[in-house]
Amino acid sequence: MEASSNAAAKKTPLYGEHQRLGAKLIDFGGWMMPVNYPPGILEEHKATRSAVGVFDVCHMGEIHFRGKRAAEAVQRLVTNKVGALLDGGAMYAVACHESGGIVDDLIVYRVAAEHFLIVVNASNIDKDFSHFSSNVGSWCEIKNESDATALIAFQGPKAASALAGLTKSDLASLRSFRFLPNRQVAGLPAWIARTGYTGEDGFEIFTPAEHAVAMWNALLDAAASAGGKPVGLGARDTLRLEARLSLYGNDLSDTTTPLEAGLGWVVKLDAGDFIGKAALVRQREAGLARKLVGFEMRERGIPRHGYPVKDAQTGATLGEVSSGGVGPTVGKNIGMGYVPAAHAEPGSRLVIDCRGKPALAEVIKGPFYRRAGG
Q1: Residue 233 is part of which domain span?
Q2: Which of 65, 103, 291, 362 could bond to 344 as cystine, CB 3.0-4.6 Å?
């Protein structure tokens, strides 16, 4: 990622705060976002793994569904079982095209029986809203409230204790993928969700955009008292990669299916007639031609997005690296990529072409990093 000063890029409500903190800012998917703050990415990564990191994720999208058919509408759009959610419950899911390709990966929140929130990726807000509206727009009210909503992530092993000082809400009993609407954090209106994208325990705090700066600074102060700090996109990427969490646009796209991406666990064929179901049934019955794998480098070389992945025996190109880099916590160079199913078994050897220098890699099972007790 290279620094940019694109005047056309959107700015989150926290843009001025990032400037004040000396952040390196770039155009990321049409948004001016911090890559890192002084002294750098490694310190931010370590702070999140050991204490708490605070992330500006205000660029993410919030789309609300309201009405008697809201649950039915959301179920038509996503692959996971919406009927399993209770009020205050959340679930990870994907929305698919009829082809089975992924429109977006997202989180569904059930606020009430007739009110659902879907949080979508920043670069897909307009695409997703159009997809949702064109398919179920007549079923219920669908409202894009992204610009009115600020979202700040508060992640790390000390997140719960640090946040407890800012709210009267019972965080100890708030389980993973549950949320508390209509609460207060630092005296400001907030929804508190126990969700995140780092592989650590933590929270995502929703607040009206006009309160974003005050909320950010309160959370920064709480994090600092626990040894934490603000974290930019650079460490957000290394953290999610270590946890083997996919990134839309890299590991997921309109041409990859959730089954190929290892997300079969969010595809519930008994959930209802969701868009893409027929294609996914056919693919499951026929067997997968390719799979997204995680691999560790066994020879010197850092895998980067787009690097060719080759057969270790024949040298034939199998695919390319979808995500890759250094794993600071695990102390290894790691990556992900799609390869033919025959090469996807743990222990399979691959060769990554690192700018013309071949380096051996090995397919592994599961995440590269798993937090203690996680």
Answers
A1: 10-60+148-242
A2: 291
